[in-house]
Write a structure and sequence with these properties.
mainly alpha; Multidrug-efflux Transporter Regulator, Chain: A, Domain 2; three-stranded antiparallel beta sheet; 5 helices; 3 strands; about 10% strand
Length: about 100
């Protein structure tokens, strides 16, 4: 039996499969940040965020090529001083 599927149909099937895997892997109740989001939040480069991950200062979740961070863990890393250089961000937020 031979099944013929058009490129657009195949693309939609793959996209849906990827969405399902991501939704099963990640908790729907948590907010996730990309490396770019974390870099912008901390006013650093993406390379710095990668270094923090390598040094276990942040705990990324990898899904395929995507690297995501739990927003609450990033906040906690800043508050706890894991990211000491950027402790001033917490102080600025508390003044507002």
């Amino acid at each position: 039996m031979k099944l013929e599927v058009g490129n657009d149909e195949l693309l939609e099937v793959v996209k849906q499969a990827v969405r399902e895997v991501i939704s099963e892997t990640l908790s729907p109740n948590k907010k996730y940040l990309t490396r770019k989001d974390v870099a912008e939040m901390c006013d650093v480069t993406i390379m710095t965020v990668n270094n923090w991950s390598t040094k276990k200062m942040l705990n990324p979740q990898k899904i395929g090529n995507r690297v995501l961070f739990d927003a609450s863990e990033v906040d906690e890393a800043i508050k706890s001083g894991k990211i000491l250089k950027y402790q001033h961000l917490l102080e600025q937020q508390s003044k507002l």
